[in-house]
Write a structure and sequence with these properties.
With about 325 residues, the protein is of the alpha/beta class. It folds into two domains: about 5-175, NAD(P)-binding Rossmann-like Domain (Rossmann fold, 3-Layer(aba) Sandwich), CATH 3.40.50; about 180-320, N-(1-d-carboxylethyl)-l-norvaline Dehydrogenase, domain 2. The protein is about 50% helix and about 10% strand. It has 15 helices and eight strands. The chain has an eight-stranded mixed sheet, with helices on both faces. β2, α2 and β3 (about 60) form a beta-alpha-beta unit. The longest helix is centred in the middle third of the chain and has 23 residues, at about 180-200.
Amino acid sequence: MRRLAIIGGGAWGTALAMVARRAGSIPRLWARDPGVVATINQRHQNPPFLPGVILDPDITATTDMAFATEGSEAALLVVPAQFLRGVIQVLGSHLPHGLPLLLCAKGIETSSLKTMSEVAAEILPASPSAVLSGPTFAAEVARELPTAVTIASGDASLGLAFIEALGSSRFRPYLSQDPVGAEIGGAVKNVLAIACGIVVGRNLGDNARASLITRGLAEMIRLGVAKGGRAETFRGLSGLGDLVLTCSSAQSRNYGLGLALGREQTLEAALRGSRSIVEGVATAASIARVAERLGIEMPIAAGVDALLHRGEAVDAVIDLLLRRPYRAE
């Protein structure tokens, strides 16, 4: 598995193309924007998404999905979660039957409440899939700073094949056989990062942020186990690792959004001008609905959903959380 189609020309897709080249694989990148494609091919850069990063000249890009997948031995799907279904529907007519997929988006589809692997299995049932998750800022990965990730698949041999295709001394994948847990961790952490940004924006202190991360992890585990994941998965890179990263750094788009909301910006103003999707906004609504359907208590996630989508004020949501009944940990 060395010839890889990378579907998505944003920061993460471009960074993963760099990862693949460093591991000795041959990536061909598909991007929707002809300007991005031209700049990658001619100048070996992607300034809108990875400013200041020089790309390996062997990374080629195209707007032609058929050309991107021609001769590929696997495809990495690196488009935002809410666009994955549409992209896979187009992609399906170009992919060889049964081509392995690595799902790299973190979220839950709002229309169906399905995870990314569930969406892929619905549309391309013959293609086996694995999930890539963990604490990863694209800019740091592209600059070859040390990073560890989870590659999760129910088929261990498939997970190991992707590890071989992407792994290096600076990009260390760890194998998991719990794709459900990896996906739930990656989705929920974005919602919790918004909550953490609000805590900091409202100057509620480090105690409050640490408490929110800890109680948020408990919510993540409850939902993940209810969906069929393993509790121990959430103590790993795709759970706690990713949660700590996105809840503690201004590089996180979700944390940055929460920070703006905590400082009394409107949602529209906070999102204005961003080329990249803030996945936690849509995922907050999905998580709240999934939790309600499964009878899972997730007060922090529900509070973020109420603030983003139901018109609740920041202080009202904070007050409601702080007035909840005492309970055993």
